[in-house]
Amino acid sequence: MKKSKIAILGSTSHIAKGLISNFLRSGEFCLHLYTRSPDKVRSFLGAIGKSPDKDCIIHEGYRDFIKSFYDVIINCVGIGTLNKPGDNYSDYFMVTEKYDNLLIEYLLKKPDTLYISFSSGAVYGREFSAPVEENTVNSIRVNHVATEDYYAIVRLNSEAKHRAFSGLRIVDLRVFSYFSRFIDLTDGYFITEVLDCILNKKVLATDNVNIVRDYVHPKDLFSIIRKCMDAGKINAALDVTSAKPVEKREILDYFSSKYGLKYEISRSLSHVSPTGSKNIYCSNYNNAACIGYKPAFSSMDAIKEESKYIINQ
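^ that's the sequence the OP posted. Answer follows.
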């Protein structure tokens, strides 16, 4: 049987690594991995017991991309985590537009190809005090646009552009949170700080806000990719959810009990996100069910199963 050809752009990203691992494990696909850092991709493949071959081809840069035919293109290109003073927020706009325009140009020439673009829950805005719903409004003060608004604007602009090309096969997958064994522990997220403290026997300092996160399991993310591939003619944005979100205190209880995490809660601490306040960052909008997606794993399942590979390595 002929294998589907899958192009993954941004192959060194966290999400891309989980997808590459699952695609290769299935043995049903021919992967074309596009990256500006081929040595990093080779190193990653070696770490998971794989190597480049006829079904896993590494492309340095994107020069030959437009000439090839792929059944599916998955856009994992990103700019990393912006959480340091002086970070260049214009990259949100420039990098996203550059690669998205490249892919739209590709689809206009090859409209049978499916384009899967990773969006974000940030598309709903920068204030999350309750789970988002179908009719949640993204309110932006147009005369006082703040840096916390930038990413939401970028994602909303990208999604709106994709809907305008209604005749093309494009799916925007809104991921709120994602966790796997391949996460970069220097990213500065709460979960990476927890793991760093365990590995380096440090005391975790955290605030008293009981945040809620919805960590999608790598197998569920791969599942929704497969559902998109089977959906035929589709042009939509879908919220990607786990079977159940998780509270911060559940995470602290688990890691303190299982791995001896030491932590202290301080009311004076505050966490500032470059994309806004996200105390309850999850979705009740189950529109991915329309393509048959049903998450098999809860956020806690993802944390338990994937963290053991990091802690016990």
